[in-house]
Design a protein that fits this description.
alpha/beta; three-stranded antiparallel sheet; 8 helices; about 50% helix; globular; binds zinc ion
Length: about 210
């Protein structure tokens, strides 16, 4: 089962990918993780990725495509994979269609205001980096880290207006990719507007669709 995961930041893609990955025993391939690992390992690729990122530039398609292609050729991807954070551009999507059969692109749909409140509720410990959430994972004492007693802060990029901007930019940038995959008949929209306790309802929609492919 070769699955692409689509959806805006804050939609919970990482969580859905992990659950599906456990269910079907296929690896999640996250482009962000591949880049971070290359940077940590100080490979040639890692150095060039680091240069692009530190200068605020996007990593060129050619490099991204190469990295993903190599990873998907590894043994553990033979049975299938979940692809998170790729494709981000139409050339990346076209390349993907050439080097792999894709069964489905799950597009996780969550209204912007729901995402804004999910992300907007996050609080990060200024000392140890632990993450809390005002509603889902509240600290025992308001504003104080349970673990180290440090002060909890709201990260600048998690403030409501910034989140709104991030979602707009995301939509503008990824729309062509979603449109492209839609024309190929690959996109299946998943209603992901459920609270965390009802995450099964989200995963069930994915499973029901995957059943039809068998
Ligand atoms: Zn702390």
């Amino acid at each position: 089962m070769n699955i692409v995961i689509l959806g805006p930041p804050g939609a919970g893609k990482g969580t859905y990918a992990r659950l599906l990955s456990e269910k079907y025993t296929i690896p999640t391939i996250s482009v962000g993780d591949l880049f971070r690992k290359a940077i940590t390992d100080e490979t040639k690729l890692g150095k060039s990725v680091k240069n692009y990122l530190s200068s605020g530039e996007l990593v060129p398609d050619k490099i991204v495509i190469e990295v993903v292609k190599n990873r998907l050729e590894e043994e553990d991807c033979k049975k299938g994979f979940l692809l998170d954070g790729y494709p981000r551009t139409v050339p990346q999507a076209e390349a993907m269609m050439n080097f792999n059969r894709i069964d489905v692109a799950f597009n996780f749909v969550v209204p912007d205001d729901v995402i804004a409140s999910r992300i907007g509720g996050r609080r990060t410990c200024s000392k140890c980096g632990a993450i809390f959430h005002l509603i889902n994972v509240p600290p025992k004492v308001e504003g104080i880290c349970d673990i180290c007693g440090g002060t909890l802060i709201q990260r600048v990029d998690e403030k409501p207006q910034i989140i709104k901007n991030r979602l707009e930019i995301f939509r503008e940038k990824t729309k062509p990719v979603a449109d492209y995959l839609r024309t190929k008949g690959l996109v299946v929209d998943i209603d992901a507007n459920y609270p965390i306790e009802e995450i099964d309802k989200i995963i069930d929609q994915c499973e029901n669709y995957l059943q039809t492919l068998r």
